[in-house]
Fold this sequence. Notes:
Layout: H1 7-54, H2 57-61, H3 64-74, H4 79-107, H5 114-126, H6 131-138, H7 142-165, H8 170-194, H9 207-241, H10 244-282, H11 284-320, H12 329-335, H13 338-355, H14 359-406, H15 408-415
Amino acid sequence: MTSVFSKKDFIATKWFTLEKLIQLITGVLIVPQIFSLLGTVDIGKLKFVESVLGMLTPLFFLGLSGICIREIVFHPKRSQQILATAFYLRLISWSVILIGILIYFNSFESSPLKGLYYIITISYLFKLTDVFEYYLLAKKQTKIIFLSKITSLIIIVSLQYYGVKQQLDVYYFAKLIVLDFFIQGLIYTLILKYKKQFSFQHWTFSWPLGKSLLKMSFPLIVSNSLIMFYITIDELFLKYFLGDHANGIFATVQFLVIALSWNVGFSIINALYPSLAESFQNNRPLYIKKIRRLLQIMCALAILIGVLYTLFGNAILSTYFTESYAEAKTPLLIFCWAPLFVFIGMIYEKHLINTNDLQKNVYRFILGCIVNVILCYLLIPIWHVTGAAIAVLTSHFITNIVYIFLDTKSRKQLLLLF
């Protein structure tokens, strides 16, 4: 990796990877206890609320992450104005969504899950401070991100352990999500202010810049909306056909594969994206080499994840989870291969950001949504959670592999890498 990527790139990746490995270890120790304490029904309720609000995350985040990092790399002197504008755009969007949720639950819907919806919505307010991550990623100062997230992790895991020992309810653990984002944002703010990298008094909102950022990010907003919809489709169908228990089972599979596994790959790709953007702007042959090397690394990691859960998935579920989660064994054997397709799609999306070709992201996720809806409708009533795993794995394959080969330009670019 160091033969293509610089030492600074390697250090940035090291901190992200170390963070995810620590999260993995602590997750294995504490999260199964939370799942066992709350049971499949309460976990299913929390997962369903997170999934429904997750469909709104493109409106919360406005697709600004990759765009802002790219713009900071390309225009470093405008960093503060870019971040300030992104922050205020997201604050306005969050306020509008909050008002809509309050009106909905107080005028049209009386849901027993209303409290959970309010708690998770508030968590997105504190998530606004992740605009500081855009700057830190662009500047490859990932050590600060590591310190912030690990400090928050230590606090949250301690409180989760307390909640397990005291046998507290699902609302307690939902509130910890809010606290997690608050702590991370507070640490970012204090560190950046102490290091005098920002002059917060001079943060100004630029409407022309805001319109420009939104115009550039609009395809990402649409494609991310499609992503969240097609990821959430499974939970909606499971809820409709089978109820909260099935969502609790599927949440276990997603926790093991996504939270403990492919988030490591996601972090590596994000950490190296500024390096890709720099090379795309200054040295195209080196850019191609970096993309090729990153694909090799991520495919190897994805195969390792698949083999790990294929060989030890049943033992992990039997050892760390109660018998009520035994139904997750077969879906886990299927879904554990999703990272192989998803990692390729993540790298492809970064390439589309660099080339300003993001409309293709919209097309491929429209295709993924259609496939997932059809398969969920056909498979979940027959094979239950296993059907959901087959549906989402197939949709990932169609979205991240088949589409690239269907698109002539993307296929030619991919073949150049091999």
